[in-house]
Amino acid sequence: MPLFNKRAFYSVSRALHIYLSTALFFLLILFCVSGIILNHVSWLEGDKNNGRLTHAMPTQLVEQAQANLNQLPSLYANIEAYMAHEFNLTNAKSIEWEKQDALVMIDYPLPAGFAFAELDFNSGELNLDYQTGGFLSLIGDLHKGRYTGSVWSWVIDISAVLMVLFAMTGIFILFQNRKKRTAGIWLTLLGIATPLVIYVCWVPQLKGVS
Predict the structure, then answer these.
(1) pLDDT digit string (tens) for 38-69?
(2) Cα→Cα distances 78→75, 81, 82, 126, Å
(3) Which residues, other chains included, contact 120 with Cβ-Cβ below 8 Å and sequence gap of 6+?
(4) What backbone torsions phi and psi does residue 147 show, to the nearest 5 degrees?
């Protein structure tokens, strides 16, 4: 029995190509559409909404803070747990406090927006300034993985690997088809050469420096 079975190899390649295309259908469309959007950032003008809300903080949290205003940082874990429970805000970019005014300020970056919380432990009020983006801004940041969290980062990495495998199985299937092999190879070479030529000839580049 030969070590390399061409028929089995091409059969597996064909099956992978078909099932990868179906499994990646949504993500392929999403990344293609969002790529076009990122190439036309002017489309995103006016696609953001700003807002502000005032919210009463839990009495227990306020009393804990007022009991020892000099040690507010010791309550950061409780404060972040409250923000996660009440507003689904996690992974703060920064958290700061002002001892004199008994304020805790938390910055949350979000895809297509942000949330900035100011917790006033003298008044017991939370002021939350936020910005949300529309669908176009959202899928643009999903494309870039900007402030989307570790799970979505894995989605990008895994889908990219599967897309490479999808492309490679397409090439393997092409080599099985003798009638279309030559034309397919020429089209593959053209697809490689065209963006390289465009990059060298028309994309601005810094030259003359070491």
Answers:
(1) 999 999 999 999 999 999 999 999 999 999 88
(2) 5, 5, 6, 14
(3) 101, 102, 103, 126, 127
(4) 55, 40
The angle that helices 149-176 and 25-38 make with each other, rounded to 10 degrees, is: 110
Token pair listed for 56: 């009463």
1 has a pLDDT exceeding 60: no
Name the residue among 104, 110, 107, 79 with its Cα closest to residue 93.
Answer: 107
Tell me the C-alpha to C-alpha distance, in Å, between residue 97 and each of 9, 70, 118, 209. 62, 10, 9, 46
Structural domain boundaries in the chain: 6-37+150-200, 48-133
CB atoms within 10 A of CB 35: 12
Could you report the per-residue pLDDT of 167-202, keeping only the tens digit for each? Answer: 999 999 998 888 999 999 999 999 999 999 999 999
Cα–Cα nearest to 112, from 145, 94, 82, 134? 134
